[in-house]
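Retro notes (design track)

What went well: tokenization of the new backbones is finally stable.
What didn't: we kept losing track of which sequence belonged to which structure.
Fix going forward: every design gets posted as structure first, then sequence, in one message. First example under the new rule, 155 residues:
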């Protein structure tokens, strides 16, 4: 079992002992999503810490989107619950990049891609290939793509 998955298991056990319903249900759902990911495909496999982190990030994103949907639908109580679940999951994710840090990484990637002759729509793809490994798990794809498009427009 990976370090991150075993930490989730330990924290789930602690949350159950403390009768922390929010944390225990959130961790249960997350562990279920990890297990589902492990058995998906032709054969079962164990996920690496990076893959577990991707699953946690995906679950956190679902919570944010659900919170927005509930807030727009006038269901403030449900929205608060989803936000709280998202905060529980955020504790297991790396610190997100600030806008300045993201822009710095993207600017370096844009300079590299443009320097190698990339132009137009192909440049976006090349820059994303350079940026994605550097920001993996620390910035959402939409946010990264927006920064790339903005900086490419300035070039």
């Amino acid at each position: 079992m990976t370090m991150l998955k075993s930490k989730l298991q330990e924290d789930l056990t602690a949350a159950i002992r403390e009768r922390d319903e929010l944390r225990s249900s959130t961790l249960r759902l997350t562990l279920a999503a990890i297990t589902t990911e492990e058995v998906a495909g032709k054969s079962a496999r164990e996920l690496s810490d990076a893959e577990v982190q991707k699953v946690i990030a995906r679950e956190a994103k679902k919570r944010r989107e659900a919170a927005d949907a509930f807030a727009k639908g006038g269901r403030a109580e449900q929205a608060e619950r989803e936000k709280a679940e998202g905060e529980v999951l955020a504790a297991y994710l790396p610190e997100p990049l600030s806008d300045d840090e993201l822009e710095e990484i993207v600017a370096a990637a844009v300079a590299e891609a443009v320097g190698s002759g990339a132009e137009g729509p192909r440049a976006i793809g090349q820059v994303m290939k350079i940026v994605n490994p550097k920001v993996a798990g620390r910035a959402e794809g939409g946010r990264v793509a927006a920064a790339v498009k903005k900086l490419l427009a300035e070039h």
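Added context from the reviewer: The two ends are 46 Å apart (CA to CA).
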